[in-house]
């Protein structure tokens, strides 16, 4: 599958159709249906680098902290190669902040959680706490965060029954795979497999500085395409 992407990072935090999509000759692109996918996780786990890799198929040279929300756009061919094939814009909303933010910050962040079609939960494979915090991020985004601010939610507190009726597709992505020593890799990946199971989601583990992890035809690329198909 050819990767096509456009980027849009509006100062308001709300996405707009990229200017290049509105130029002559791009009418087809401007008329595409759009879906919204949140990209959530602790600051520093590599969300911006991941989104840049997904949308631009390039390594982000100088990643910086995301303030508020930045939006990038990827074009996805739904059910590619079948009679049902259709092309969509996928808006990837990289939401900044900390899971332990004050209530006022969380309230501001809540505006980004409206009309969501899918969620990518991102954690740092070298940071166990960032993995545990994904439970809290999911609860917050799905408006089921009943735990006081600053209290760490672990899988022991995570009730799968809360999400039995959840219709929003989830994907768990672990970053910085290259920084896991070979002697620790099996232990870490076993733990993250249970994490993905808790969310009833597929998982992808990668190094955002190496595009080969998402190369066309790879198992990761297949999982990603399958997730985006579910989002439609």
Automatic annotation (TrEMBL):
The keyword Magnesium does not apply. Required for KRAS signaling regulation and modulation of cell proliferation. Regulator of KRAS prenylation, and probably prenylation of other small GTPases. Required for lymphocyte development and function. Not required for myeloid cell development. It holds the Pfam family Roc. Belongs to the small GTPase superfamily. Rab family. Keywords: Dioxygenase, GTP-binding, Nucleotide-binding, Oxidoreductase. GO terms for molecular function: dioxygenase activity; GTP binding. Homodimer. Interacts with GPR89; the interaction stabilizes GPR89. Interacts with RAP1GDS1. This is Rab-like protein 3. InterPro entries: P-loop_NTPase. The keyword Oxidoreductase applies.
């Amino acid at each position: 599958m050819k990767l096509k992407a456009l980027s849009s990072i509006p100062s308001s935090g709300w996405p707009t159709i990229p200017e290049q999509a509105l130029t002559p000759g791009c009418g087809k692109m401007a008329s595409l249906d759009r879906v919204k996918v949140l990209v959530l996780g602790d600051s520093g786990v590599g969300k911006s680098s991941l989104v840049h890799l997904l949308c631009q198929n390039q390594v982000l040279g100088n990643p910086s902290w995301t303030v508020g929300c930045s939006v990038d756009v990827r074009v996805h061919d739904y059910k590619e190669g079948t009679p049902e094939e259709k092309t969509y814009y996928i808006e990837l909303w990289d939401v900044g902040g900390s899971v332990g933010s004050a209530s006022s910050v969380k309230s501001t962040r809540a505006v980004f959680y409206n009309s969501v079609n899918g969620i990518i939960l991102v954690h740092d494979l070298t940071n166990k706490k960032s993995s545990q915090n994904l439970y809290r991020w999911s609860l917050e985004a799905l408006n089921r965060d009943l735990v006081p601010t600053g209290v760490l939610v672990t899988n022991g507190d995570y009730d799968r029954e809360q999400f039995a009726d959840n219709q929003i597709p989830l994907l768990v992505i672990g970053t910085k795979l290259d920084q896991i020593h070979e002697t620790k890799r099996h232990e870490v990946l076993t733990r993250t497999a249970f994490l993905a199971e808790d969310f009833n989601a597929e998982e992808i583990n990668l190094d955002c500085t190496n595009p080969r992890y998402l190369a066309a035809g790879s198992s990761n690329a297949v999982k990603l395409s399958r997730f985006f198909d579910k989002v439609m």
